[in-house]
Amino acid sequence: MFMNLTKITSWNTLSFFVFAGVFWLINTKIPSVIIPINQIIAISFLFALLYCSFFICWWWISAKSPYVRVAGFSSLIVMVGLIFGFSYPLIYDLLPKLGVVFHDPSHKFNVSEFQTRILTATTFIVILGAVMAFLLRYKLNKALLHKAEQKGKELQRTIAEIQQRVKSKHLTPHFIANVITGTMGLLGKRNHEKYIERLLDLSSLMHYAIEMQEEDKVVTWEEEWEKVMQLVELTKLCFGTASVICEYRFAAPQVELPIGILLMPIENALKYGSISENAPLLLTVEQWDDRWFFSVQNKYLFAKRNSIASSKTGYVIMQRRIDRGNLQIVLDSADGGDQFVATISGRCST
């Protein structure tokens, strides 16, 4: 059901057979109207081509992006101009050369009648394309909303499972409390494709949170960074697209990490910090000599941070995981004024 425009257009090409069937039915049911088979094939092909083209125009016009809408309206105008500019030479010059003759030589050619027929046919195809494009958009949006509702129910079950399995001695994924509420609130009101993607990100993070309870589990940098970017996208959904700045200044190091080590400072920033587009969360990954550095910088309010109860065991538990795995990783943090910076560093290869 969730098709892109290419797949939809592929299905729309089958309209050739629909138009051909309609003209064949006219041929058989109305004796006074006799349409040669080559004309049925030619006109069905032209109608199908125009229908597919106008469907694409209306599909873009019905999109949410204003740029795509402008492209749709521009394409619609161009299509109409091409039809009225080239329909005459197409029908009375090119097609006759191919053996398809629409004009009866025994009848005098009437320009106004020709223009009326072209206008009627074009109007019909334009309206048909618009109806089908908007109808399919509506159906897809309903299907997306249904999928979001099903994913929401699945997510609630996942959250309940996580809450049962997370114990006080383990890391507590803060985004359970900090990101879910905002994300699910937005997903409940909107059903655009990107919100479905964020819902899938949230579900993926929930499953990852379960894996984070395994103290000796290690993952690759790429695996951990994928989850970092999912959490970043969810944060942007909650606080605005400019609420997170990510600066990645070198290639991914070939290292193994304790699971959740890069997520931990981001979760702390979301829990204790004051994140907004005016006070964005800054993530930086860079290399100095043979070491990589990952830092998370955020602003916070003393009143907010002091009002949140915390066992302050997250860094202690993570350091224990580093020591048990004999991993050459260093955790550090600095607190100055209303800024907090957490830094994690290690060798670029292990």
Structure description:
The chain is α+β, with helices and mostly antiparallel strands and 350 residues long. Helix content is 61%, strand content 13%. It has twelve helices and seven strands. The strands form two sheets. A five-stranded mixed sheet has the order 2-4-5-7-6. Strands 1-3 form a two-stranded antiparallel sheet. The protein is elongated, with a radius of gyration of 31 Å. Residues 167-172 have low confidence and may be disordered.
* Oligomerization category of the chains in this entry: single chain
Q: Helix amount, in percent? A: 55-70%
Q: Categorize the overall geometry.
A: elongated
- What is the helix/strand order? HHHHHHHHEHEEHEEHHEE
| Beta-strand percentage range | 5-15%
Number of helices: 12
**Roughly how many Å is the radius of gyration?**
31 Å
> What is the CA–CA distance across the termini?
45 Å
The neighbouring-strand order within the major sheet is: 2-4-5-7-6
Structural class: alpha+beta
Low-confidence stretches: 167-172
Count every beta strand, where a strand is a DSSP E run of 2 or more residues. 7
Q: Major sheet, described briefly?
A: 5 strands, mixed
The chain-level mean pLDDT equals: 80
